[in-house]
Structures are given as structure tokens and as C-alpha cells.
């Protein structure tokens, strides 16, 4: 089934000029970038986006890293896009990420892990709506 998922290219990747390299892996996996914008997340946006992790010990550092420098927010479309992108990203911890995945190639650490991708179709819809209106997504 054709799905849409939400992606963030994180500050550790934008800082190292890796936006194009990450996008090449995404497109090489058959996912289409149907919306994309480079922004600086506000603290309020980052806190809301990662609200589910609010009680985790890394929450404060996560919010400060995500707001320190620009990110690229994206909508990706393709067959089973949610699962397909999670496979392309690789494990959250880059040491456990499979060869060829974005995190294996580019991530610096579990915190600075280069990309975010939605973990379910339901969350994809919620996350996309936080950054894009329907008319900004061109499939
Ligand atoms: P992400 O997929 O964006 O979802 C939550 C983020 O928290 C995760 O990627 C990491 O960037 C960050 N993080 C930092 N430490 C941890 C940890 N120990 N476990 C999971 N996520 C972590």
C-alpha cells in the first residue's frame, strides 16, 4: 500500500553538509520526497514533537540538539513507506545499524543519529500535520 511517512534530517547531518547524501539513500531505496523544507525548530516545536520521550533522561539533550542548528523536515511516499524508511534509516543506535543504512553510514551516536522517521502510520499522520499542510505535499 502506498503510504506517507515523516522524516527529519537532524542537525548533526545538516551541519556536515549531508542533506544530499541522505536524500540519495532515501531516493535510492525507492522512496519519493514529496515535501521538504529546511527550518530551525523552536524549543516549543521540538518539545511537542518529542513529547512521548519527556520522562526519558535524554529528553533535555535531545531538545537542545534538535534546536541548535537547522533540520530538514520531509514527507516521504512509497510502498509501505513507514516500514521501508525505518529499514533505510537503520537501528536508533548506529552501532547496531545494518550496513548501507543511513545511520550506519552517517550517524555519530545514539543521540546524534542523523535522521528521524515515524514509527507507525498513525504517528506519521500526526507528525506530518505538525509541519505540513496538505497543499504543501505534492505526490
Ligand atoms: P529518534 O528516532 O528521533 O527518536 C528519539 C530520539 O532520541 C532518538 O532518535 C535519538 O536521537 C534520541 N536518543 C538519545 N538517546 C537515546 C536513547 N538512549 N534511546 C533512544 N533514543 C535516544
TrEMBL record:
<dbReference type="GO" id="GO:0005737">
    <property type="term" value="C:cytoplasm"/>
</dbReference>
<protein>
    <recommendedName>
        <fullName>Nucleoside diphosphate kinase</fullName>
        <ecNumber>2.7.4.6</ecNumber>
    </recommendedName>
</protein>
<keyword id="KW-0067">ATP-binding</keyword>
<keyword id="KW-0418">Kinase</keyword>
<comment type="subunit">
    <text>Homotetramer.</text>
</comment>
<keyword id="KW-0963">Cytoplasm</keyword>
<comment type="function">
    <text>Major role in the synthesis of nucleoside triphosphates other than ATP. The ATP gamma phosphate is transferred to the NDP beta phosphate via a ping-pong mechanism, using a phosphorylated active-site intermediate.</text>
</comment>
<keyword id="KW-0546">Nucleotide metabolism</keyword>
<feature type="binding site">
    <location>
        <position position="103"/>
    </location>
    <ligand>
        <name>ATP</name>
    </ligand>
</feature>
<comment type="similarity">
    <text>Belongs to the NDK family.</text>
</comment>
<dbReference type="GO" id="GO:0006241">
    <property type="term" value="P:CTP biosynthetic process"/>
</dbReference>
<dbReference type="InterPro" id="IPR036850">
    <property type="entry name" value="NDK-like_dom_sf"/>
</dbReference>
<keyword id="KW-0460">Magnesium</keyword>
<feature type="binding site">
    <location>
        <position position="92"/>
    </location>
    <ligand>
        <name>ATP</name>
    </ligand>
</feature>
<dbReference type="GO" id="GO:0046872">
    <property type="term" value="F:metal ion binding"/>
</dbReference>
<feature type="binding site">
    <location>
        <position position="10"/>
    </location>
    <ligand>
        <name>ATP</name>
    </ligand>
</feature>
<dbReference type="GO" id="GO:0006228">
    <property type="term" value="P:UTP biosynthetic process"/>
</dbReference>
<feature type="active site" description="Pros-phosphohistidine intermediate">
    <location>
        <position position="116"/>
    </location>
</feature>
<dbReference type="InterPro" id="IPR023005">
    <property type="entry name" value="Nucleoside_diP_kinase_AS"/>
</dbReference>
<keyword id="KW-0547">Nucleotide-binding</keyword>
<dbReference type="GO" id="GO:0006183">
    <property type="term" value="P:GTP biosynthetic process"/>
</dbReference>
<dbReference type="InterPro" id="IPR034907">
    <property type="entry name" value="NDK-like_dom"/>
</dbReference>
<dbReference type="InterPro" id="IPR001564">
    <property type="entry name" value="Nucleoside_diP_kinase"/>
</dbReference>
<feature type="binding site">
    <location>
        <position position="86"/>
    </location>
    <ligand>
        <name>ATP</name>
    </ligand>
</feature>
<dbReference type="GO" id="GO:0004550">
    <property type="term" value="F:nucleoside diphosphate kinase activity"/>
</dbReference>
<keyword id="KW-0808">Transferase</keyword>
<feature type="binding site">
    <location>
        <position position="58"/>
    </location>
    <ligand>
        <name>ATP</name>
    </ligand>
</feature>
<keyword id="KW-0597">Phosphoprotein</keyword>
<feature type="binding site">
    <location>
        <position position="113"/>
    </location>
    <ligand>
        <name>ATP</name>
    </ligand>
</feature>
<keyword id="KW-0479">Metal-binding</keyword>
<dbReference type="GO" id="GO:0005524">
    <property type="term" value="F:ATP binding"/>
</dbReference>
<dbReference type="Pfam" id="PF00334">
    <property type="entry name" value="NDK"/>
</dbReference>
<feature type="domain" description="Nucleoside diphosphate kinase-like">
    <location>
        <begin position="2"/>
        <end position="139"/>
    </location>
</feature>
